[in-house]
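Field log, afternoon session.

UNIT: design team B
ACTIVITY: writing a sequence onto a fixed backbone
BACKBONE:
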């Protein structure tokens, strides 16, 4: 059982009202999640999943997973599988079996015939362009099609011939007969069926007419006995059409559509079409690239399902569109991992330190807590030797004000071990830093009597002799956090420096772990061991940094 993810939002209030009013038999609740299998799911879909499945669970109901596969040319089984995988990963279980809108093609065809018999639908011979051009606009009513008043018999025959493959693509459509002067443009005789001679991934060549979303969706909901059909705000103006189409359904209980605002997150693109372009044009390595806002990308990046559910819970359900700061998502993963993952030391951008007074060949073991915020996580030992690595950025030859780390003549503590003082800087021929030579205060070892001398900085470190070679990937946002719509194509705005690969050094403890394990690398952030890891050479993705107070201070100083 997953954590309840829906608070008391307005969608939930509607569900409660229906329960109180006994709108549905036995006060049942059945929601659905209806993805179109034309891409991988993204963070916005996660919101919809949490809302639909969350309500199903909370009100002792259930949630159907229905693939909305009415568009034969764009869909793929790869997407179907990834979507099922994503829903399960988020911690939800749909009511078996999995549904497909295409399973209802025969029934939907019968519903369309019923509308024709009711005088509510007709076959139109106009071209798509003509239909578009005669629709009118907000100020002008549309024009009736010359084919609008065909008899039911004639329409039934033509529709049957459309189904039988008599006509080429685009030569005829089935339209709803509603009102060409309706103030709601959606209601001006919308198209219900179109001819597409294309093979469908599930029904093959059985059909050459396919229902439009506006027709298939309400009726699929009705067939399944869905009570609350929750969708995003752009469908609000289509709600009258949703209800209109339900006239074709003669069951006792009809679903109702409730709209909520789409989730947008700063730095994240939430459009399958755009994400597909990024994959197709090679801007990222694939749908599950850890920079992608897809659920599979976020998963590979190292986010936990709990953190995503918590995020969806915290943002609530809105009635008007807004954009959530990605910082909230990052807060959720830090909060989730902070007490539950071990902390280890890894030096991402190493520079060698030699402790000139520390005996060669000597190894001491330093005992460190695995997680100071969780005593149950226990302790581990880390080898300490004469030759070590620290981060290059923890050393400054000419320190700026308020830099409290290592620099010539200054002292720092090496985490859990000794205080060291920098005596000498050794350079390569090109002037770059080669190694730092230091003296170790042998009386300062942490935890020993008289060791409580205080110095301002404490650095993480790794012993050279036992260091694990590892690759670390750091990520930056694909889209800048302060991005404004300036009319430019989103592809032009993509950050071309969003990936940094480092050859890093880690403490030996790391080799005890496996792909998929998460850590905090001390002072460096949260990381996950990626599936690209090889035996003896792990690869890590940075999930999120720790809040970098130093970077903030520097920014303040600059401004
Ligand atoms: P996209 O624009 O990414 O293609 P879509 O709406 O076309 O999204 P569907 O597969 O039809 O994708 O979406 C399945 C469900 O997820 C729908 O109920 C849809 O309303 C919902 N959904 C899609 N995007 C978001 C979002 N950004 N926030 C909340 N719900 C969303
Ligand atoms: Mg859609």
């Amino acid at each position: 059982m997953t954590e309840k993810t829906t608070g008391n939002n307005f969608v939930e209030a509607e569900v409660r009202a229906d329960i109180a009013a006994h709108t549905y038999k036995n006060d049942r609740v059945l929601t659905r999640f209806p993805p179109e299998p034309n891409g991988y799911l993204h963070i916005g879909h996660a919101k919809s999943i949490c809302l639909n499945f969350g309500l199903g669970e909370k009100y002792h109901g259930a949630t159907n997973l229905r693939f909305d596969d009415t568009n034969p040319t764009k869909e793929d089984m790869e997407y179907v599988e990834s979507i099922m995988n994503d829903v399960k990963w988020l911690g939800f279980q749909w009511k078996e079996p999995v549904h497909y809108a295409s399973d209802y093609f025969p029934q939907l065809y019968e519903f369309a015939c019923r509308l024709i018999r009711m005088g509510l639908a007709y076959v139109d011979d106009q071209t798509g362009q003509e239909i578009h051009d005669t629709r009118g606009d907000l100020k002008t009513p549309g024009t009736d099609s010359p084919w609008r008043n065909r008899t039911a018999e004639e329409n039934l025959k033509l529709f049957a011939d459309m189904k039988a493959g008599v006509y080429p693509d685009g030569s005829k459509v089935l339209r709803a007969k509603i009102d060409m002067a309706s103030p709601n443009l959606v209601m001006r005789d919308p198209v219900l069926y179109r001819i597409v001679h294309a093979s469908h991934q599930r029904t093959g060549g059985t059909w050459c007419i396919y229902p439009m979303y506006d027709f298939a969706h309400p009726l699929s909901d009705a067939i399944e006995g869905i009570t609350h059909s929750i969708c995003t705000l752009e469908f609000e103006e289509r709600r009258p059409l949703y209800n209109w189409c339900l006239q074709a359904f003669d069951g006792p209980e009809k679903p109702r559509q409730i709209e909520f605002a789409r989730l947008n997150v700063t730095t994240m693109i939430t459009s399958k079409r755009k994400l597909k372009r990024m994959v197709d044009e090679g801007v990222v390595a694939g749908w599950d690239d850890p920079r992608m806002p897809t659920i599979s990308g976020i998963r590979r990046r190292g986010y936990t399902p709990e953190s995503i559910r918590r995020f969806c819970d915290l943002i609530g359900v809105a009635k008007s569109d807004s954009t959530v700061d990605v910082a909230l998502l990052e807060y959720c993963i830090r909060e989730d991992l902070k007490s539950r993952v071990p902390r280890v030391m890894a030096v991402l951008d190493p520079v060698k330190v030699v402790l000139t007074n520390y005996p060669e060949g000597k190894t001491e073991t330093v005992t460190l807590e695995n997680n100071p915020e969780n005593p149950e996580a226990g302790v581990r030992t880390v080898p300490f030797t004469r030759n070590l690595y620290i981060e290059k950025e923890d050393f400054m030859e000419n320190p700026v004000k308020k830099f409290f780390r290592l620099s010539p003549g200054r002292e720092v503590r090496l985490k859990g071990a000794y205080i060291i003082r920098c005596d000498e800087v050794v350079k390569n021929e090109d002037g770059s830093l080669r190694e730092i030579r230091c003296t170790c205060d042998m009386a300062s070892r942490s935890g020993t009597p008289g060791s409580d001398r205080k110095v301002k900085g404490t650095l993480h470190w790794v012993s050279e002799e036992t260091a694990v070679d590892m690759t670390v990937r750091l990520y930056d946002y694909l889209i800048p956090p302060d991005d404004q719509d300036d009319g430019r194509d989103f592809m032009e705005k993509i950050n071309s420096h969003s990936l940094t690969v480092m050859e890093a050094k880690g403490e030996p403890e790391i080799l005890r772990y496996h792909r998929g394990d998460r850590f905090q690398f001390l002072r460096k952030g949260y990381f996950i061991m990626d599936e690209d890891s090889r035996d003896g050479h792990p690869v890590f993705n940075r999930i999120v940094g720790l809040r970098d107070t130093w970077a903030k201070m520097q920014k303040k100083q600059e401004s």
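LOG NOTE: The pocket of magnesium ion (ligand 2) is lined by residues 36 (CB under 6 Å).
NEXT ACTIVITY: expression trials, pending approval
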